[in-house]
Amino acid sequence: MPNFQTVRGMRDLLADEAGTLNFVISKARETAELYGYREVITPVVEPYELLSAKAGEEIRSRMFVFKDLGNRTVALRPEFTASIARLATGALKNEPKPLRMLAVGSVYRYDEPQRGRYREFYQSNYEIMGASNPEADAEIILLTDSLMRSVGLHNYAFKIGHVGIIRGILGQENVDEKTQSAVLQLMDKKEHNKALELIESEPCRVALKGLLDIKTDSVHETIEATKRQVENYGDAASAVQNLQEILTLVAERGCPVATVEPTFARGLEYYTGMIFEVYIPEVEVALGGGGRYDRLVEVFGGEQTPAIGVAHGLDRIVMAIQTQKTPPNKCEKMKVAVVPVKTIMKGRALGIAQLLRTAGISAELEVMGRKINKALEDADRRQMDFAVIVGEREIEQGCVVVRDLAKREQCEVPISDLPKILSSRS
Ligand code: HAM
Predict the structure, then answer these.
(1) What total of structural domains would you count in the chain?
(2) Residue-range definition of the domain harbouring residue 127
(3) Is any atom of ligand 1 closer than 6 Å to the C-beta of 125?
(4) Is residue 3 part of a domain?
(5) Which among 9, 175, 209, 356 could bridge 113 via Cys, Cβ 3.0 to 4.6 Å?
(6) pTM of the predicted model, to two decimals?
(7) What pLDDT is stored for residue 170 in this prediction?
């Protein structure tokens, strides 16, 4: 017999976990609404070229790539940003700016499976296009703060950097863009020595080494030390200035910034400005990350469009909720079992179940043909709230029996009052 397990790195989510994931998704959508982001739905399968254009080697090498039956090279999306940037060059090209968009769904990366790292996972992804001001950067961080808070997480904190610092130094010393990206990728993997080895220019290496040597827990001191390190590099100095402005905006709103790292880099290649990730102490991996990418829309053939966004790892947020034992404040709906006393009452029982559902009450019909005691035992075991028992004698009088399964009490109720009575008890 074949052993049909899930493909490595892919998971089945059973009802409890799926419930928590859906709870987080509902909060992600609520957050989007609060901040004015409108949801778009893009395909899971996209042209390989679109997804790989500016993703960076790290993600490019982990994409699920294949030929479709029309011999097109396509891939499963490893993220949403490229698809959304495509919208800005096409369908939404003439829309007034800023454009605020949300996308929610599964994404795919051939990562090495481990705790919090899967090959199919879920993201809520927010992008704001057309705004270059630091308020837009601050909004994306604050929106992440709102989501973390609304799902009940605590002690989360942000790590923030700015790719303009390293790019500014390297650019001024004429290091080409490809090498700049390679340096940033190595920085992302914390392979600092290898990154330094890639740089031929001595002053450049000294400047980068100086940034790597900044070791202080104070955000203010980090910024001041970084400013001193880059004082001879105009673009890098402007990047620090921009970072400081964003930090002031978010700090004033009480957003917990734990660390600022001048050499912080992220896997994706398209970033041009502020970048950030959010963590909780109990989980090593980031719960979300994003940053500014002012040139991606242009790469896809659109007009120059400044943009910034973030994606939250929803599976990791679920894991964080479980780790912090945050009771997800899912408002559990009242559950009612509808049980016919005899088989001949099944049609009437079905009618009662429909009546309840029409009134917005969740009703599960006894479909196993079990005797009343067995059906009630099962409803009890599944922690249902009430059983509606549909008996011949009561039906003749237009009534049913409502049993409170927790209190083990029951009473006769006219069918016409049933939805109202049950709703009042929820
Ligand atoms: P990212 O940092 O590659 O950014 O992914 C965002 C989040 O997805 C991560 O912080 C993490 O929580 C989650 N994640 C990444 N890989 C995995 C995995 N293998 N298993 C489970 N969760 C994972 C982006 O995707 C960018 N598109 C974000 C962005 C939007 N930047 C600008 N706009």
Answers:
(1) 2
(2) 15-323
(3) yes
(4) no
(5) 9
(6) 0.92
(7) 94
